[in-house]
Amino acid sequence: TTPPATAVAATDNEIEAPAEQRRKRVVLFVPFHWFFADQYTAVTSALRNCSIDWIVASSQAGEASAKHNEFRVPVDVTLDELQFDPGEYDGMLFIGGNVVPEFGHKDPGAQEFVRQALQTCLDSGGIAASVSNGADAVTECCQLPGGLRREASGR
Predict the structure, then answer these.
(1) Residue 132 to residue 29: CA distance in whole angstroms
(2) CA 37 to CA 28: how far, in whole Å?
(3) What's the pTM value of the predicted model, to 2 decimals?
(4) CA distances (Å), 56 to each of 35, 106, 118, 131, 152, in order?
(5) Separation of alpha carbons 72 and 121, rounded Å
(6) Secondary structure of the chain: what % helix, strand, coil (to 5)?
(7) Cα–Cα distance list, 100 to 22, 60, 104 (Å)
(8) Which terminus has fewer CB within 10 Å in the chain: N or C?
(9) Spatial contact of 71 and 65, defined as CB atoms under 8 Å apart
C-alpha cells in the first residue's frame, strides 16, 4: 500500500528531534513605591493568557506597593541581583508609576543597569516595552532624543 501523502520517509539520522520548547519569559520592572495596580494586573493577565512567564524586578527586596497601598506584589529580584541574560529572558517590560526616580536619574547605578539591560535585550532580538509612564524610564535611561525635560525645580 502507498503511505498517505503527509507521510515522509526518512532514516534515523535525517530526523531532527524537536527543539526543547521553553516558555517565553520576561522581566517585569515594577517601581517599589507607587506603581499602578490596574496596569500590573492587565499586563500580567495578558502575559498569562499568552503563556509567558515573568519575574518582578524592583529597586528593593520585599513587596512593591501600588499607588494607594491597595495592592502589593512580591519582588522576585532586585536590580542589584538581576543579571539580564538574553538566553533566559525574552524581553523587558516597565509598568507605570514612580519609575523615573527608581530606574532613572535619582539612582545612577539603576539607570546604567537599565540602559545596559535594554541594549543587551534589543541586541539579542528581545522586546522592550512599557505601559504608561514606564516609557519615561526607558527614555531617561537611554537618553533618547526628545527625552524628558526637567522643570526648573529639577523634576
Answers:
(1) 13
(2) 13
(3) 0.73
(4) 12, 21, 16, 15, 34
(5) 27
(6) 30, 20, 50
(7) 33, 15, 4
(8) N
(9) yes
DSSP 74-142: E-SEETTT----TTT-SEEEE-SBSHHHHHSTT-HHHHHHHHHHHHHHHHTT-EEEE-TTHHHHHHHHH
Asked if 78 and 61 count as a contact pair (C-beta separation under 8 A), the reply is yes
What the block records as the C-alpha cell of 124 is 539579542
Reference 35, options 113, 83, 94; nearest CA is 94
Q: What is the pLDDT of residues 39-79, one digit of tens each?
A: 899 999 999 999 999 999 998 899 999 988 789 999 999 98
Q: Which amino acid is at 29?
A: F
What are 37's three cell numbers? Answer: 495596580
